[in-house]
Design a protein that fits this description.
The complex is a heterodimer of chains A (494) and B (223). Chain A has 494 residues and is an all-alpha fold. Chain A has 18 helices and two strands. A two-stranded antiparallel ribbon of chain A has the order 1-2. In chain A, helix 12 packs antiparallel against helix 13. Chain B is mainly alpha-helical and 223 residues long. Chain B has one domain. In chain B, helix 1 runs parallel beside helix 5 and helix 7 runs antiparallel to helix 8. The N and C termini of chain B lie far apart (46 Å). The chains are: A mainly alpha (494), B mainly alpha (223). The interface between A and B is large, with 42 and 37 residues.
Chain lengths: 494, 223
């Protein structure tokens, strides 16, 4: 029932959009009215999803299974869906002013609006069902569809560089995802060998987790990992990420780095929780930590010479996914708890960064840091957004990432001291790179030939909300969030 | 126990499939490239058919039909249309690897896969299912080589299709996934090729053209 509610909601709005576009706005040349109409629908869609999820949390006893066990709702899925919906909602609010501005500057064309909002809404639906899919194969298909929709969202700004970025994303992600299919087939065969019935359902795999043959499971895990890691920008499958983030419209970049990137990690968390019950988990821990450290290292050294603000933020996402991978790989209840908290904090901080970067990009018509002269004077809110976002992703004390980073690193020290030292040095480089680049660029004196461009209140609101939310979740951690995170950890069998 | 003639037949088909893979790595004319891909898919359908005859599993029959419809007819037709629309008929550019070195690396890859699978699966070397899975993963790896070493998007797309064929072959021999999943994977493949084709045209066209093509794409999504 609840899953149908999600689907019907989307279909209803699609119907309204089709009818209105066909009859009321037929031949309408005013771009603004079409844009705000489509934005209203998107907002309504996102708000409806938040309400449905809210109701599900309050009313339903978890886990819920439906559609021949293809879909399910458990605490982890709900948690990820909620993060996704909040970000989608904020992005939709932000998009109202942002897309209007892009239209005025003729960066996006009126004809592309339907495609843009259509893909955006569809991405939201598919992302929600990706997290709700109980079946690994269904999960794979939906995750693969998000790649295609993301590519469409990138190319709506019909620029040659955008097409190249989108193609790079599609080819790298899809190629890697095909390896996942090999992993899925192996897992299916392994499950069939163990229990007699081939299955790819998380719920059923968890039941037979401890009797799966370890060597075959590791083999399957490695293949699955390649695809999921590429979706999360883990090194060496990350090469698409900075370019795609830099070229996509900022509201889409925010969704990419705060929601889409969680999809791959979600798959890895699920697979690891199966491995956790099996004797092979030591090997998988080593694999995850190696790739995690590698991601942090490559991101750290790539951040130093950056000049493009959005690419800089993109590399920071790679670094954080590395950290999350280490958190997952350490495989204790404590690290999983803090990893989940880290995912939430990272999503909020990245959304803040991209929303602010979007305003700066519109102001200077460039994402290059050297162009951002007199930023404090021209766009004080966005500049503070970038600074606070940067402090938050680096993990300064009052911000939530400080806590998650601290506890993950403490556990890493228990695992291996040399690895901890290496990671600490790398994180220092990341912090130094961010501080150096931002202080240098945002404090440039400008001769002030530019006029401050007036930003819509709808673009300011999400940034202000995120300021409060980032500090708020640290407080909320003490008053209820920790309970939720403990429930999720327990539901994964830790 | 399988009929010895079927075993020999499948082994012969394997050899031909590997042959088409080598041809795809080397071929420069796009038209031939698409035809070779269609032939490779047809060979795959034959493998499924022979296995269907032996096991009687209808998933295999459905798979063979689906392969013929989508990969022998629809996808090559779409690719050929892109070729005609874009006016690009040759892809003679190779990056990182020349065709000969790609073939040598490909052979090395097959050997590595063979020996590592031998250890993991602990099956006898004569086992048809073992051979099938090795050929499947090798085909996927060779497809990846094509994606790496070719420059034009359309050729890369053929590399991706070849990878998918490899994965499918692997699936047929290791474990039959439920048919609905196979169907979705193929639908996904068609959308992927459509998108890649539109975008590859986008790279060579002007902005107005691209917007028009993207709008055409919307029609596909709306259907």
């Amino acid at each position: 029932m609840i899953f149908l509610a999600y689907l019907i909601c989307g279909l209803l709005l699609l119907g309204i959009a089709a009818v209105v576009l066909k009859w009321r706005l037929k031949g309408e040349t005013a771009a603004a009215s079409k844009s705000s109409f489509l934005n209203n629908l998107t907002l309504a869609h996102a708000a409806a999803y938040l309400v449905i999820t809210g109701l599900a949390i309050i009313r339903l006893p978890l886990p819920v299974l439906a559609f021949n066990n293809y879909l399910f709702m458990d605490p982890l899925a709900i948690y990820e869906v909620l993060i996704a919906e909040i970000i989608f909602f904020l992005a939709a609010v932000y998009g109202r002013g942002y897309i209007k501005n892009l239209l005025e500057r003729r960066v996006i064309k009126v004809e592309s609006l339907e495609l843009f909002y259509g893909s955006f809404n569809l991405l939201m639906v598919i992302m929600v069902f990706t997290f709700f899919s109980n079946n690994l194969a269904l999960f794979w298909i939906l995750l693969e569809l998000t790649t295609i929709l993301s590519a469409v969202l990138i190319v709506t700004l019909s620029d040659r560089a955008n097409v190249i970025a989108a193609l790079k994303y599609v080819f790298i992600a899809s190629t890697a995802m095909l390896f996942s299919v090999i992993g899925l087939i192996l897992l299916f065969a392994t499950a069939k060998q163990t229990s007699g019935i081939g299955t790819l359902n998380w719920t059923e795999l968890m039941l037979i987790a401890n009797s799966l043959p370890p060597s075959l499971f590791i083999f399957a895990f490695v293949f699955c990992f390649i695809g999921f890691a590429s979706k999360s920008g883990i090194v060496p499958f990350h090469t698409w990420l900075p370019q795609a983030y830099a070229k996509a419209p900022s509201m889409v970049s925010a969704v990419f780095s705060a929601v889409l990137i969680n999809g791959g990690i979600y798959g890895i968390i699920r697979l690891y929780s199966i491995a956790h019950q099996n004797s092979c988990w030591h090997t998988i821990t080593v694999i995850l930590i190696v790739f995690g450290v590698l991601s942090i290292a490559v991101a750290a050294f790539s951040m130093l010479p950056r000049t493009n603000l959005k690419k800089l933020i993109g590399f920071s996402s790679i670094e954080h996914m590395g950290l999350v991978l280490i958190g997952v790989g350490l495989g204790t209840a404590v690290t999983l708890f803090w990893t989940l908290f880290h995912i939430l904090a990272h999503s909020l901080s990245k959304a803040l960064l991209f929303f602010s970067a979007g305003i700066l990009k519109n102001q200077y018509e460039s994402s290059y840091l050297q162009d951002m002269a007199a930023a404090f004077k021209l766009q004080p809110l966005a500049t503070w957004g970038v600074i606070i976002g940067a402090l938050a992703v680096v993990g300064m004390p009052p911000f939530p990432i400080f806590f998650s980073k601290l506890f993950i690193l403490v556990q890493l020290g228990n695992f291996s001291l040399p690895v901890l030292i290496v990671v600490l040095v790398l994180l220092l480089i990341v912090a130094a790179a961010l501080a150096y680049l931002l202080i240098n660029s945002l404090t440039q004196p400008g001769e002030n030939t530019l006029k401050p461009y007036r930003i819509d209140w709808t673009m300011k609101l999400p940034i202000q909300v995120l300021f409060v939310a980032i500090i708020g979740i640290t407080v909320y951690l003490a008053f209820g969030l920790s309970g939720i995170l403990n429930t999720i950890t327990a539901s994964l069998g830790y | 126990m399988m009929n010895p003639i079927s075993i020999i037949l499948i082994k012969v088909l394997f050899v031909f499939i590997l042959g088409t893979a080598a041809l795809i790595i080397m071929q420069k004319s796009l038209r031939s490239l698409f035809s070779i891909y269609a032939i490779q898919s047809l060979l795959m359908a034959f493998v499924s058919l022979v296995l269907f005859k032996e096991t009687g599993s209808f998933v295999l029959l459905a798979l063979a039909v689906l392969t013929v419809v989508t990969k022998v007819i629809i996808i090559p037709y779409m690719l050929n249309r892109v070729r005609k629309d874009s006016g690009i008929h040759h892809d003679a550019e190779f990056r990182y690897l020349t065709p000969v070195s790609a073939i040598i690396i490909g052979m090395a890859l097959i050997f590595v896969i063979y020996s590592s699978f031998l250890r993991v699966f602990q099956l006898s070397q004569d086992n048809l299912f073992f051979l099938g899975s090795v050929i499947g993963v090798s085909l996927a790896m060779l497809g990846m080589l094509v994606i790496f070493s070719r420059k034009k998007i359309v050729t890369k797309a053929v590399g991706y299709l070849m990878m998918e064929n490899g994965v499918l072959l692997f699936g047929v021999f290791i474990a039959e996934l439920p048919f609905i999943i196979e169907l979705f994977i193929i639908v996904d493949l068609v959308i992927f090729i459509l998108l890649a084709a539109v975008l590859s045209m986008g790279i060579d066209s002007t902005e107005e053209d691209l917007t028009r093509k993207l709008n055409n794409l919307t029609k596909w999504f709306k259907q």
